[in-house]
Each structure stands twice: as C-alpha cells, then as structure tokens.
Amino acid sequence: MRVFIVRHAQSENNALLSPNLDNPSRQSDPSLTKKGWTQCANLTKCFTTEANGRYKHVNEMWTSPMKRCLLTAKAVEDGLRTGNARVNGEIFEHGGCFEGGRGGGGGGKGGDAKTSANENKTTAAATGRPGMGRDEMKQVFPDVIVPEALKNGWWDTKRGVETVPEAQARAERVAESLWKRARGSGGLKEKVDEVEKEEEAQQAKKRKVDDEPEVGDLVIVSHGMFTDILLKILVGVPKSTGRQMGLFCSQNAGIHAIDLDVATEENICGLVQFNDVRHIPEEARTGGSVFGLDECYVSEGSA
What φ, ψ does residue 259 adopt, rounded to 5°? Predict the structure, then answer.
C-alpha cells in the first residue's frame, strides 16, 4: 500500500516570526495565508493532472480536524475526487487546540504568567479549545466525512497542551492503523456510525473509479511535526525528546510517499518520495526549515 502524506498549506501561524507554543500571537486553529491559498490551488492542479496516473489507486483520504488541513484536504479532493475523504481525530498537530502561550511551570495545564523573549509580552498559561465540531468542519469542507465522536469538537480542553511523548504515543496508534489498513483489515473503516454510513453512500456515487483494488492507496493531510514523528515511528527511529539527531522536514503543501509492505514476515516501510514541492512555484514555497522543526522539539512547541 502506498501512502501519500501532504503537509498543509501555509497557515497564519506559520507566517509568525516565532511560530511556537509560547507565542501569544498564535491562534488555536488558524486559516491560511495568501501564499497558503496559492499552494492549495497548485495542489488541486497537481492532483487533477495525476488523478489517473500516479494517484489512480487512491481510494481514501484522511485529514486532520484542524482548519488548515481541512482547507488543504479540500484542495486535494477537488483534484482527486475520491468521494471518500475522512477526518481522523488522531492526526492533528502536536500541542492540540489552545490559545495563548503555555505559561510558566504548568506544562500547558496551568502555571503563572511569563514573558516571551520573542514577543516581549507577558502571557498567561494556555487555554484549551475544543476545536471545530462536525457542522463547522462541514462548512470548511462540505464533502468530508466526520465521525460521530468529533460531533462537538476533537480536543479535550482540560488537557491544555499535548506533550511530545503524548504526541509520539498518538503517532504509534496511527502507525498501527496504517499497518492494519495495509493488511486489509481495518483503518478508519472498522467502526462507523449511522451518519457516516449515510454520508458514505452519498459520497460513493462521486468516486472516480469503480474497479479500485481491495486495499487502495491513501492520502493523509497532516502537519509538519506530526509527520516527522509518524515517519520516525514507521521506519523504526527510536523515540526521543528534546533536540533530535535527525528530522524529516516538510515544506508547506509538500508531498511524501511511503510504501508499506506487509508481504514479508516483518512489516517494512520504504520512503519512496520526500518533500516533493515541484508543483509549487518557487516564489510561493514556504516552511521546511531544520531550525523551525528542531525548535518544536526543544521548546515543545509548534504552529
């Protein structure tokens, strides 16, 4: 099974001078910048051009519940027309959904106000937000299938800010879902509610091919840091916190491709394409810096 991982287009948080968790100017769930919309338009062109070529076996898409990913996923779906785009509540960016900086001494769950060196402002501890619910997600991406569990939002506001170890544990669950899907025994389709079944029946009429393979290829629309964590788990890099010895850096709207081979005694993950941005004009390319991703681990923060 081949999996195409697309990082979202440039978000308003990405465009901040210091897009980390301690920046009080960051938004809990930002939209896209002007460059981000340009990147989305070029993603649609790319997937339209190759819908019957390299992407012809794609029969499902998973997207993060965050707005920047939903907008990017809609652009991909406008080109692919799988009729099978689904919100996956496990593939959001490290940190979760919250407003404000983390504050001092509380790891995002409390603590006193602190001063941010980058912004020279005093900030209070982060305040968790539930994120968009089903109706709001549908306004952003009308054809997306949203699980019942996410009807009223996807983030537990009491959690504050997710830690790196928590994000790594979540990525392990996603990796297992991918291996199960590759074996033809699960993924997101294992448990569906009645609303999802009705939506599936409606979307099935829009699918681009009738003779799809039993286990088709998959597109995932997610985030820079989460993609780094997920790829490390899939290829067997030991988990660590703080400064990393190596990083999988993704530019905005960049596309990775991995092959998941379950035909042997042990699962094998092969990275067959890394950070392809040929579809994005050079003047519209953003993100992907080593420093930025390293800072996310060191300071436990990401846009």
Answer: -110, 130
